[in-house]
Amino acid sequence: MIVSMNILVLFVITLVICLIGFKRYIWFISIGYGLSISGIAIGEIVLYHSNMSALLLIYGLIMTVYGFRLGGYLLYREIRTSYNSRMKGEISDGSGMNIGVKVALWLSCALLYLMMMAPMIYRCENDSEDNVLLIVGMCVSVLGILLESIADAQKNHAKKLNPKQFCSSGLFRIVRCPNYFGELVIWTGIFISGFGALSGVGQWIISIIGYLGIVYIMFSGARRLEIRQDKNYGADPAYQQYKKSTPIILPLIPLYSVKKHKWLVG
Fold it and tell me: I want to staple 137 with a disulfide (CB 3.0 to 4.6 A). Which of 24, 146, 183, 192 is the partner?
């Protein structure tokens, strides 16, 4: 499978954006993640505009806004004094991390983000005119963006009212990690959008790896959150009842804990 020059350019864009992780390694998978998606989406629009349908252009703009919103939100959260004080001791700044490990994280994260966007990229590369599944995928992604945005707003509101109380209102009544669920919905939409446009086994493998990669990251994030919440609220009977009765990441799926699954460490 030949990699086009445009794909190499998109990879370089992602590598440059992910350099932010050398400041604090967690930024490889937080701020760098959101901004990389925007960078790839903008790069697609610039590089493939002559091959892009109006629908694909709109999808690219949607992902651009989504990435900037996510990256901006995470950046704002990082610079908040209260958030940093809560996270100190729970998340390492990576100051003692070997440079070789950081380089490996940098390269692997940049490559993963590119693979996550692969269904859209290959739709541009292959000049596909099948718009039915593109529309379906775009609608699914928009739904995911709405779920994630609403969940973030609801949690911020709840924390302003009671900073020391876990959030169990709004979408958090349905699932304990609705923002992570929203992310899964977004990338399910991206994956669906590639159906009918992906050509050859190689393109399918890359797209599947990208999709499974973000699924792993979301479940890994849910595990970290569960561990942190158990530490903060474990003695609260109301939290214990909430945890036992509310699925952790997938609504209606009776999966209430992933804490014991150490293979989700990421």
Answer: 192
Give the residue from 33, 51, 206 showing the smallest Cα distance to 127: 51
State percent of the chain over pLDDT 70: 92
Enumerate the domain spans of the chain: 5-264
- 106 neighbors 22 (Cβ within 8 angstroms): yes
Tokens standing for residue 26:
């967690």
Q: What is the pLDDT of residues 25-54, one digit of tens each?
A: 888 988 999 999 999 999 999 999 888 889
236: pLDDT strictly greater than 70: yes
Q: How far is CA 175 from CA 45, 94, 132, in A?
A: 35, 31, 30
Nearest residue to 123 (alpha-carbon basis) of 16, 45, 17: 45
225/82 Cα distance (integer angstroms): 17
* Sole residue written with tokens 């393109």: 203
